[in-house]
Specification:
single chain, 182 residues, alpha/beta, Nucleotidyltransferase, domain 5, five-stranded mixed beta sheet, 19% strand, globular
Length: 182
């Protein structure tokens, strides 16, 4: 299974693609989409949309995990983040990719073990879980990878519950298989 994680930002949007086989993770690629200084918001949104479309075409993820918005003290910042999230969801929906949203607190809880974790702790765990030699840079890319890792944990758990409720025994490979059709 391949997941695209997105950490939305109006100036810098982090993204990361991870594969997992049910036992371990593998980094495919990660990076950021940066707005050009002085760009107006509509131009930034277009840049983000174009970049995410290219990433989806290049890597063909099965799912898209997006960090949910948080209520910033500045209402304008909150609205801008909502617009970036909307663009990311639109791009994923157009590509017929499952979309999942996770709160920043849940991402930290899942990756580090507690919801009040510091950024450095999240980055360190991403490095460890992906068996990387260094922390992914910039931090927005590491945050996006953390969102993707969070999705793997919660999606696998949800599938196990569904299988259990259906009373069907499936091999582990069936729980992590990539979709056959797009």
């Amino acid at each position: 299974m391949r997941v695209l994680g997105i950490d939305p930002g109006s100036e810098t949007t982090g993204w990361g693609v991870i594969e997992a086989d049910g036992r371990s993770y593998r980094l495919v690629e990660c990076g950021v989409v940066r707005a050009l200084s002085g760009q107006k918001l509509p131009a930034r949104l277009l840049r983000i949309a174009d970049a995410l479309e290219g990433i989806i075409q290049r890597h063909g993820p099965d799912a898209c995990a997006i960090e949910d918005g948080f209520l910033a003290t500045n209402v304008k910042v909150t609205l801008k983040l909502g617009q970036v999230r909307g663009v990311a969801m639109l791009v994923a929906e157009r590509a017929a990719i499952e979309i999942h949203e996770y709160s920043p607190r849940l991402v930290k809880q899942t990756v580090v073990g507690h919801g009040n974790a510091e950024k450095f702790q999240v980055q360190q765990m991403v490095k460890t879980l992906l068996s990387l030699s260094a922390i992914p840079e910039p931090h927005d890319a590491a945050d996006a990878l953390a969102v993707a890792i969070c999705h793997f944990h919660h999606a696998a758990f949800a599938k196990r519950i569904l299988v259990s409720q259906a009373g069907v025994k499936l091999p582990i490979s069936a729980l992590t298989r990539r979709r056959a059709s797009r």
